[in-house]
Structure formats: C-alpha cells, structure tokens
Amino acid sequence: MKKIGEKSFWYKALLLSLVMPLLVVMAIYPFKNWFTTTDIVMLQLLWVAWVAVRSNRRVAAITTLVSVACTDWFFVTPYFTFHIENIEYLVTFLVMLIVGLMISQLAGELNTKVRDGQLHASNSRTLYELAKGLNSLDTLDEQKQYFQQLISDHLAITCQFQQARQQSTGEFMLLSDKEHSLGGFAFTTLLSEGQRSFVNTAISLLYQVHEKTSLRQQSAAISVQAELERAKNALLRSLSHDLRTPLATIMGASSMLADDEITLSEAIVKEQAGNIFEQSKILNQHFDKVMELSRVNKMGENLCWQTINLQALLSEAKARRQQQLVHFVVTTNIDANSSCQGDVTLLEIALANMFENASRYGDGHAKLYFSYQQHARQIDYQLRITNRLASSLQSSTDQGVGLGSVICDVVAKFHHGSFTLDINEQQQSASACLAWSKLND
Question: What is the pTM of this model?
Fold first, then answer.
C-alpha cells in the first residue's frame, strides 16, 4: 500500500514539474507576440509558485528549471535552441531561477510547518479521544484493546499487545519499565522519532489510567469492607439490645414454670406460656432480620445496577411483608412511568423494612414520596416515608426496629447514599428517608 502511494506521488510530481510547464508554454505560444519575455517569465513564475504551494520544494525546484528551459527554447531568439544572444535575457533567466528557488524554499518550509501543525493537532485529538475512552472502561483488558485499535487506526500501523517481546523486526514498547509483567505493545514496522514520542505519551496515559482504575477499585473494595465492618458492629449492638428483653422474659417465665416450689394457677401457667410463645416469635423475627442482613451484605459485594419501575418496586416490597402489612395503607405520588436505577432486590428489602417500621409504630397510614435530581456526574434518588405515630407506643424496643434500620442503612451505603430516621415526638410524626446516587461513568 505504501509503495503504491509513493508511485502515485512521483507520477504526480512528474506531471507538475515536466509536463505541465510544457502545457503552459504551448498555451502561451500562439500569443507570444502579445507578450514580452518578462511577461512570459512572470506567467511561468506564477505556475512555479502554485506548484511550490501544492507540492514540496524539490518538485518546485525542478519545475523552475524546466520553466526556464522552456522559456529559453520557445520564446528567446534564436528559437528552439538554448543559445542566448542578448545578455538581458540571461539576467532575466537568472533572476527567474533565483526567485523560483526562493519561492520553492519558502513554500517548502511553510508546508513543513503546516504538516507539523496538522500532525500535532491530530496527535492531540487522538490522545484526547484515548483518555476519554480509557476512563470509560473498567478493566485493563478492555483498555488495552481500545488502545491498540485507536493507535493502529491513527498511525496506520498494526499494533498488538504482547505479554512478552517476541521475535519481530518491528518496535516493542513496554507498558511500564518498572513492571515488565504487564507486557507491552508490538508494532509491525519501525517507528519514526515522532511516532515513537507519540506512542510513548499514549502508553504513559494508558498506564496512568490503569493505575487510577486499580486505585479506584481498591478504594471501592476498602469502602465495602468498611461498610461491612460497620454493619457488623451495628448488628452486634442491635442484637444485644433487641434480644435482651425477649430472652429475659423467656428465662423468667420458663424458670417460674420449672420451679417445683412455686404453685401456679392454671391461668398464670397459661399466661406465662403465652409470654414465652410471644417472645419466641419476636426472637424468630430477629433471626429472620439477621439472615436478611447477611443476605444484603452478600449481595452488596456484587451490586447489580438496573432500571427499576417504581410501581413494581412498591408492590414487591409490600409483598415481602404481606402478613404485617395487611391493614397498612400507603398513598404515593409515584405514577406508572416513574423509574429509578439501583439493585432491585436490595431496594425491595430496604423499602419493605421501611414499610414494616411505619406500620408497626404508625397509625396504619403512611405517605411515600419519590424525587430525583440529575447532575452532570450523577443522579440523586430519594424515597421518603412519613407517617403519624400511634397514639400509644409500646415502651419496649424488642420488635426489631433497630435491625430494620441497619438493613436500610447498609443498602443505602452500597448505593453511595444514606438512610435517616427522624422522629418528632412533639408533632407525633416519623420520617424515614432512603437516599442514593447513580454515578455517571
């Protein structure tokens, strides 16, 4: 392909420098009596200047020599010879030759600077596209594939990633001089100095993006681990608080029933047995919460972002607590087309716990509000439930509200958000808010 391009260039150069001056002379020749020799020289210089701008200095210099020769052959007496009788013509031709060479030299320098500027602009544009594309990819393999495709198209040279240098007549450039295990890129041909400098810059950019991606993944892993540890600590605190009352009740009632020295009436025995049963159900709910929290932590390690219909999310969340929410009424501003982004299973679990708490400590009615704000780099979502508190709240906190809040908080953290629960005792109202963000990659 390269040889064909070179042949085409030299054919074009031959046409400009040899054939076209002859054609210009043949076009002027029938009207030679209308022009002086100086006029003809100026017309020839016009063609020389055009060739110098359109081609390189070598072709323009040859065109100048051919034009001088054609002018002498066709327009200077004696015609059809290179003999010059008048010294005036010799000076004219000499000036024409010098001016033509100067024009070709200046035009050549201008063309070189223009080509350098165009090459610099093309390289800068390619590096910008490379940086933009690499930052949108998450794995090194995807980044390397994008790199070799873009560089191959830009340089018109095959570029291929290799884990180690193989026998090749072309170039091989490492991704990192300090970490040879990362491999490098092999080129089928030797690179020029400018191409090598460009590729060095591009590889440096790839390595920086790779380092940035690795640090971001490590930071995300550390953040997830920190959230897991925080959730575990919150779980232990909540369990120690929530399990204390049911266990104390069960132990007290069972010890009373097991004591042979205490005579109990049938009504008291039945009452204590009922207490044991009710507290056992509460313990069972706590253990269900523990299992649910464990599942949330496991799923959060592999968060799956997807578009979720909010009406479907609301229905599935209520279905998870179908027995507890039989008489619970929710009014909402969500329409059939409203949607959000997140892990559908985790958001269902969080919303179900919010409904459960609102039903247990409210008056049976709640309002659900959904809102979102779109920014340049992220979209912020918010689900808020407000309800009136029940007229007579149970004094104990042995029904697992703490674990439900912990679950909601863990789900929010996995979604780059937060969970808040505000209770206004003066106004006898409660508000639970689940907020999260979807980052735009």
Answer: 0.46
